[in-house]
Amino acid sequence: MPRIARRDDRGSAALDVALVAPLLLLVALGVVQVGLAVYVRSTLASAAAEGARVSAVSGGDAAIGERRTRSALGATIADGVVESVVARSTVVSGIPVVDVEVRARLPLVGLLGPSVLVVHGHALAEP
């Protein structure tokens, strides 16, 4: 009686996992990186806007705006990446405004993407 050759599928699942797992890990790390970058940018922008608003209401005092921005960032994950906070009074199109600039490092999972993030918050200077 002739023997029919059968294909042996043992071990193919391990090979599939070995081929697909690195790609899935790379995609997952990319999603985490984008999510973290969006969160940090959103937190920095919110704190800069709050600092500019407080500075504008207090008569354009830059030190108050810087302190408020730093205190708004104090309880967040973004506090550890902030390099500098600068508040200044400027004039834009003839209108006095307070500008708060926050410069931070992006917490990177990999080596791709920008490493520095600069965010500005603006508020109209109150008389």
Number of domains: 1
The helix/strand class is: alpha+beta
Helix proportion:
40-55%
Give me the count of strands.
3
What is the strand arrangement across the widest sheet?
Answer: 1-2-3
Number of helices: 2
Helix and strand run: HHEEE
> What is the overall shape?
rod-shaped
Ranges where pLDDT stays below 50 over 5 or more residues in a row are: none
For the CA atoms, what is the radius of gyration? Answer: 25 Å
Structural commentary:
The chain is α+β, with helices and mostly antiparallel strands. It has one domain (12-124). Helices cover 46% and strands 24% of the residues. The protein contains 2 helices and 3 strands. Strands 1-2-3 form a 3-stranded antiparallel β-sheet. A hairpin with a 2-residue loop joins strand 1 (82-92) and strand 2 (95-105). Helix 1 (12-57) packs antiparallel against helix 2 (62-73). It is rod-shaped. It starts with 11 loop residues before the first helix and ends with a strand. The mean pLDDT is 85.
